[in-house]
């Protein structure tokens, strides 16, 4: 009988179809989330464990790494890894992997769904019909905004941002982007100043990485530059947008509309966003399709298997 490799699982993969079961089938899994005193549990069970699985929701702090002196690999489910202390991992020589590419198309698709829903007031129209108001009240919902042929600004032209931009070309849009650095492999216009990009754009889609370096990157000045008819879409990380400034811009009329899949303090959503007609709000479902979640699951397991067999991972975090 082959002895299973022991791993630490930081949290349950509730959003994945079968990840928990597949991990348990292949590995001796220590389920850290089931222990209230994590420090004591790791002191008792962590010795000799060289691999840990997690996600952006659960992360992996330097403190957690310190409690695992034999740790050599962190395999994360999802593309974001801002909650993993990558610097601490590199200092220890610990491999960190994520699951890029497999969720690119579904997240980009949702960005466009949010944009169209906001511009064409789809959510408001559906509520109008469901409430039995169509034909029962004078008039209809307010006019929406045309999507095709407009100016699209993208914050962060990585894999997902690029997929969003390519879809914009199909809507006959002019596309410009703001990035940490200008890319020489694309023809889209580059704006070094985010405020200038917002001032130019009709629609601004946020697709940048999360973490301290992008916290409140989209703040009051950017939102007001987008203007009273502008629409901001966020499928990146909630804290990239200053949520207080966003609510103030919407309620004051300085920003037209927000379409959001992520929030600064999830799962808390400000009442003004939940109840107003100037926002489309979703419960962080950018990657929530069966195909994508299975792809993420497969890649996370492939990274883990590769580490144990070769000492390397398939998709190291960049």
From TrEMBL:
Keywords for the protein's UniProt record, in alphabetical order: NAD, NADP, Oxidoreductase
InterPro entries: D-isomer_2-hydroxyacid_DH, D-isomer_2_OHA_DH_cat_dom, D-isomer_DH_CS1, D-isomer_DH_NAD-bd, NAD(P)-bd_dom_sf
Presence of keyword Oxidoreductase: yes
SUPFAM superfamilies according to UniProt: Formate/glycerate dehydrogenase catalytic domain-like, NAD(P)-binding Rossmann-fold domains
UniProt KW Transcription regulation keyword: no
Molecular function terms from GO: glyoxylate reductase (NADPH) activity; hydroxypyruvate reductase [NAD(P)H] activity; NAD binding
Superkingdom of origin organism: Bacteria
A single GO cellular-component term on record: cytosol
Pfam families in the record: 2-Hacid_dh (PF00389), 2-Hacid_dh_C (PF02826)
Sequence ranges assigned to domain D-isomer specific 2-hydroxyacid dehydrogenase catalytic in this UniProt record: 23-313
PROSITE patterns xrefs: D_2_HYDROXYACID_DH_1
Domain D-isomer specific 2-hydroxyacid dehydrogenase NAD-binding: 113-286
PANTHER family the UniProt entry points to: 2-HYDROXYACID DEHYDROGENASE YGL185C-RELATED, 2-HYDROXYACID DEHYDROGENASE-RELATED
Family (UniProt): Belongs to the D-isomer specific 2-hydroxyacid dehydrogenase family.
Protein's name in the database: Hydroxyacid dehydrogenase
């Amino acid at each position: 009988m082959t002895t299973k490799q022991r791993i630490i699982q930081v949290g349950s993969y509730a959003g994945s179809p079968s990840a928990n079961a597949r991990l348990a089938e292949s590995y001796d899994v220590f389920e850290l989330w089931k222990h209230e005193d994590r420090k004591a549990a790791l002191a008792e069970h962590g010795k000799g464990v060289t691999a840990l699985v997690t996600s952006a929701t659960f992360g992996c702090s330097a403190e957690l790494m310190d409690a695992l002196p034999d740790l050599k690999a962190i395999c994360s489910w999802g593309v974001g890894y801002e909650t993993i202390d990558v610097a601490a991992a590199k200092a220890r020589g610990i491999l960190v992997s994520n699951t890029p590419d497999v969720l690119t198309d579904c997240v980009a698709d949702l960005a466009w769904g949010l944009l169209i829903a906001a511009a064409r007031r789809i959510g408001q129209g559906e509520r109008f019909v469901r409430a039995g108001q169509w034909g029962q009240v004078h008039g209809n919902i307010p006019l929406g905004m045309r999507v095709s042929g407009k100016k699209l600004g993208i914050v962060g032209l990585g894999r997902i941002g690029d997929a969003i931009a390519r879809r914009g070309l199909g809507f006959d849009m002019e596309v410009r982007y703001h990035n940490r650095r200008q890319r020489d492999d694309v023809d889209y216009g580059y704006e070094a100043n985010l405020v200038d990009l917002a001032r130019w754009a009709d629609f601004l889609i946020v697709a940048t990485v999360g973490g301290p370096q992008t916290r409140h990157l989209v703040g009051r000045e950017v939102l007001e530059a987008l203007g009273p008819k502008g629409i901001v879409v966020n499928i990146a990380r909630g804290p990239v947008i200053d949520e207080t400034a966003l609510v103030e811009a919407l309620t004051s009329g300085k920003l037209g509309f927000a379409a959001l899949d992520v929030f600064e303090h999830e799962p808390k959503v400000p009442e003004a966003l939940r109840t107003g007609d100037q926002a489309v709000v979703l419960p962080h479902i950018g990657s929530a399709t069966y195909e994508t979640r299975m792809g993420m699951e497969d890649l996370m397991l492939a990274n883990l298997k590769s580490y144990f067999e070769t000492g390397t991972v398939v998709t190291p975090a960049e």
